[in-house]
Amino acid sequence: MKNEKTVVAIMYDFDNTLSTTDMQEFDFIPRLGMTADEFWTEANGYAKRHHMDGILAVMYMMLQKSKGTDLCTRASLKDCGKNVRFYDGVETWFDRINDFAAEQGVQVEHYIISSGIKPMIEGSKIGKYFKEIYACDYVYDQHGYPLWPSIAVNYTSKVQFLYRIHKGVFDVSEDDKLNGFTPEEEKHVSFANMVYIGDGMTDIPCMKLTRQNGGHSIGVYRPQVGNQYLIKDDRVDFLVPADYSAGSEIEQIMKTIILKLNAESQLERITKQHAQRILVQEQKTEELL
In a 10 Å sphere around its CB, with 0-12 CB exposed, 13-18 middle and 19+ buried, how is residue 126 labelled? Predict the structure, then answer.
């Protein structure tokens, strides 16, 4: 049997899924001289008054509050990412999962799909582990100052990135290929080989789409934050504590999923090979006749 690697795509929300709170709260907002409550209250109020998308309102507020400073330059945003704190085990999670998958002959790809700020994620301690980071960002001038939003990711627009990963159309400016027909054999990874990990309401469209197409969704929670509705409303396959430590429940589940997907992919390859073999035999028989 031809030795083909199974590709598994693991997609993560970021804020409150991997990081312990919203990424702006660790460094960016304190640098503004504001409390987190003050910043979010003002941003949410601005969105309501102007009937704005909430994510765009946050991006606007970040620009307005940092006006006259370097706080919103790309370099500064990346620097703020260095101080993002994560749940237990997150910083070693990716190497552990990659090593386990490699032992099984599986190729794991990690992706971020977040309404957070892309340079902050890139600058964080885990930024290097992701094949692609889909998150909010700006267009910057030659000095790194933001000019205009280049992408704003909200809970509904998150879904498009599952399709991008599925088809292998990673460039967000490429729409024709994303919307056009792609033969099954040319798609990058099947939905059945996708796992989505998130913590709440904004992740539900991605969780639902992943599960509807044969993939898996995992909800994570902090003890003090209730999101039991994710499993009660049949949004996720598993609901586990936000603890990514070695031997944790989520690690055991992820390893089991990898083993399952690898076995299914191998069986699928065997089935296709047998079908191809029969087709060749039939063709040879017809030629003899």
Answer: buried
Confidence of residue 183 (pLDDT cuts 50, 70, 90): confident
3-state secondary structure string across the chain:
CCCCCEEEEEEECCECCCECCCHHHCCHHHHHCCCHHHHHHHHHHHHHHCCCCHHHHHHHHHHHHCCCCCCCCHHHHHHHHCCCCECCCHHHHHHHHHHHHHHCCEEEEEEEEEEEEHHHHHHCCCHHHCCEEEEEEEEECCCCCEEEEEECCCCCCHHHHHHHHHHCCCCCCCCHHHHCCCCHHHCCCCHHHEEEEECCHHHHHHHHHHHHCCCEEEEEECCCCCCCHHHHCCCCCEEEECCCCCCCHHHHHHHHHHHHHHHHHHHHHHHHHHHHHHHHHHHHHHHHC
Cβ-contact 190, 161 below 8 angstroms: no
Structure tokens of 4? 């083909």
Angle between helix 249-288 and 90-103 (nearest 10): 30
218-265 residue pLDDT tens: 999 987 666 677 877 778 999 999 999 999 999 999 999 999 999 988
